[in-house]
Write a structure and sequence with these properties.
Distance between the termini: 49 Å
CATH class: Mainly Beta
Structural class: mainly beta
Largest sheet: 6 strands, antiparallel
Oligomer: single chain
CATH topology: Jelly Rolls
Helix content: under 10%
């Protein structure tokens, strides 16, 4: 008799149906043209990013410095307290200042899927 072992993973529906555990971070202000990478300890179920401060905050899945030629593959907030919720699986996001010194808050719902199980996010709309 064969035993089937049920475990968390990228293709495991149950890993996304249960409530995720919370992860929160933030910053008062990014420097002018600064970009930071936020790495999550587990694969995300959803991510909410909110802008605080002044300027334009950009949210993207690939560092803008590596895009040749630079692409507009990001969401840009242009007012204080704009927010965006993404129901996506990923292990990191990038935040950058379009102009000014925007601050941010990030709330993520995390699965119990280890980061090593996640595939690389590339391709049209992400890195070019």
């Amino acid at each position: 008799m064969a035993w089937n072992y049920y475990d968390v993973g990228i293709g495991n529906v149950g890993s996304y149906q249960v409530s995720g555990h919370p992860w929160v971070s933030g910053s008062e202000a990014l420097g002018v043209s600064e970009e930071i990478k936020i790495t999550f300890p587990f694969v995300t179920k959803s991510i909410t990013v909110a802008q605080s401060g002044s300027g334009n905050l950009r949210v993207h899945f690939h560092p803008t410095g590596t895009m040749e030629p630079p692409a507009n593959c990001y969401w840009e907030f242009n007012s204080h307290e704009d927010a965006l919720t993404l129901n996506v699986k990923c292990v990191d996001i990038y935040l950058s200042a379009g102009h000014g010194t925007p601050g941010f808050q990030v709330l993520a719902e995390l699965t119990r899927i280890a980061p090593g199980h996640m595939f690389a996010l590339t391709g049209s709309g992400i890195s070019d």
